[in-house]
Amino acid sequence: MTFIKALGAQWNKGKLAQQLEQAMMLEPEIQSLFIGATTVATVSNLIAAIGFHDSETQEQDQPVTHEFMLTILFDCFRLLMIKQIEHDNLSQAEHLIIELAKIWATKELDDKPGNELNLTQYRELQQQILKLAKQLDELNRQRRLQKRNMGR
Predict the structure, then answer these.
(1) What's the CA gap between 64 and 110, in Å, rounded?
(2) Are 70 and 104 in contact (CB under 8 A)?
(3) Would you state the pLDDT for residue 55?
(4) What secondary structure letter does DSSP report for 109?
(5) Is the pTM for the entire model greater than 0.70?
């Protein structure tokens, strides 16, 4: 029975990765990130692997919402930020996830009736991502300066 549950979870991760890939390819500024060696499929699979929560799965046949995308990117961003702080060693795909989170944090939520509560939560997540990204950028800048000064 455990094998069947594990297989089902992997199937759901694969479906989620496909949905994430489709959502990302709809955004022109995100498409421009995937000119290099790392593909959107690689990044979407990594996002699904890191951010997948069985209890919070996106509806299988529904397009990914802005709220869901920001939430899963926020979860990935936090974990990758900790990895960056502790180890200072992220892969290209992981760096792209951080950039995706920053880009998505600047997107506005669709104005639909009944979105007032979601809008507040969405904006809080946006602000947290942008604040943490600024701190991470400052840390990376300080590390570069320190490495540059070590050669003198």
Answers:
(1) 13
(2) yes
(3) 52
(4) P
(5) yes
